[in-house]
C-alpha cells in the first residue's frame, strides 16, 4: 500500500469476503472488513406457567395467570418455553430477560432443562414434567429489582437447543431461598429471549401443518378402561399427546391413526366433567380440547330418552310399591281366612273325637254318636267347599295381577325394550360398619345380560318395627348416603356410618335395581 500524504482523500477498501461487515479506520483509511454474517432476533415465547404444591391450588391449573411465582415454601416452581427452531449456526449470545413484578425475599433462582413435553393449560403440581438436575444458569434477585427487569446469559443453553432441536422442552425456574413473581404473556409483560447467531442455516422447517385437528366423538370403554377418540387430522404434526383433567398425560396402548386414538384411563376415574386435550404440536391448529362427561346412563342414552326413562322410573317405582302394599294386604287376608278355617276344621275334628269317645264309653248312645259324626262330616265338607271358593278367588286375583303387569309393560314400550325386571340383592343382609367417618358398605345390583338399568334404591331392614342395627339413628348412625346408576347395567347403593361414636354391627341392608331387558 502506498503511503498517504496529510489531508489526502482517504481510500475506501472493500475486502471481498462473505458476510456481515465491520467498519474500521486505520491511518485515515476506511475499510469494510467482512467478518461473517450475524443475525439477532427474539425467540417467540410459546408457553409459561407455574405450579403450586400447597392447599387448594395443588390440583389447579395456573396456566392463565398474569404472573409466574417461584417460592420454596409452597413450593411454587415455574416453567417457560421458547421456540428456537428458527436459529442455526453458532449462538454468539443469548439473553433471557424477566420482568420482575414483586420480590418478597432475596435469593437465587436456578434454571434447569425440562426433559419432556408439558402443556401450560393442563399441568398441575402432580403432573409437572421431569427436569435435569444440572443448573444451566442462575438469576440473583433482590428487592431493588422490583418493577424492573433481570437478565441472565443462556448462550450455552440455546446452543444446545439449536444443535438438537428436539430436546427443547423449555426451562424450569426453581429456588431454595428467593420469593419472586415474574410477568407472563397473559399480562403482556412476558419474558423475552434475544439470540444472536453467526453463520450456518437454521434447521429445515417442520413439514407444513395440515388441517387442524378436531374431535368428533369419544367413547368410554368401562370394561377395558380405554377412551376411544374419533376425529380428524391427528397426524398433522408429531404423535398426539392425550391429557385428561387433573390426571395428566394418558398412555396409548396402540399407535394413533389420522382419525382414531385409543388412550388408557384409570379405573378410579369418577363420574363428572373432565377436560380432554390433544396436542400434536405448538400451533393452534395442533391443539384441541373436549369437555368429557362421565355418566353411566348419559353415555349410552340420548338426553330425551334418558329424561323419559327417568320419568317412568318414578311411575314404575310407585306402581311397584303400590302392588307390594296390595300383595301384603292380600297375604294378610289369606292368612287370617286360613287361620279361621283351620280353627273351624280343628273344632270339627274335636267334636268328632268327642263323639267317638262317647260312642266307646256308652254303646247305648252309639246311634246318637254316629248321627253327630255325620253332622260333623257335613261341617267339614262345608269348610272344604269354602276353601275351594277361596282357591277360585286366588286364581281371579292372579289373573288381575297378570293384567296389571301387561298394563305396566305398555307404559315402557316407548323405550325400545320389551320387559322389565326388578332385582333385589341382599348381599349384606347383616353387615358390619366400623364406627368411623366414611366407613361404609356398598351393594351393587346387576341387570341380566343385555339389560339396562332404569332405577333402583336401598333400605335399612327392620324387624317388628325395630331396626336391625342396635342404636340405629342413635349411637350407631347408619344412613344411605347415595343410590345411583354406577354403570348402564348396574345400580349401586352405599350405606355409611355417619356417627363415629360407636361401631355398627348386624346392620340389615338391602338394595334393588329396576332393569329393562331387550326383546
Q: Into how many domains do the coordinates divide?
A: 5
Calculate Rg over CA atoms.
42 Å
CATH architecture of the largest domain: Sandwich
| N- to C-terminal distance | 107 Å
In a few lines, what is going on in this structure?
By secondary structure, the chain is of the alpha+beta class. The protein has helices spanning 155-163, 303-361, 366-411, and strands spanning 12-14, 21-26, 29-34, 38-43, 45-52, 67-70, 76-82, 90-105, 107-114, 131-141, 149-153, 171-175, 179-183, 192-198, 214-221, 226-232, 241-244, 248-249, 260-264, 272-279, 287-294, 419-425, 431-433, 440-446, 452-460, 462-463, 466-467, 478-487, 490-497, 504-507, 509-517.
Description:
There is one protein chain. By secondary structure, the chain is an alpha+beta fold. The protein folds into five domains: 1-36, no CATH class; 41-198, Sandwich (Jelly Rolls); 214-294, Immunoglobulin-like (Sandwich); 303-412; 419-517, Sandwich (Immunoglobulin-like). Helices cover 22% and strands 39% of the residues. It has helices at 155-163, 303-361, 366-411, and strands spanning 12-14, 21-26, 29-34, 38-43, 45-52, 67-70, 76-82, 90-105, 107-114, 131-141, 149-153, 171-175, 179-183, 192-198, 214-221, 226-232, 241-244, 248-249, 260-264, 272-279, 287-294, 419-425, 431-433, 440-446, 452-460, 462-463, 466-467, 478-487, 490-497, 504-507, 509-517. A hairpin with a 3-residue loop joins β17 (241-244) and β18. α2 (303-361) packs antiparallel against α3. The termini are far apart. 24% of the residues are buried.
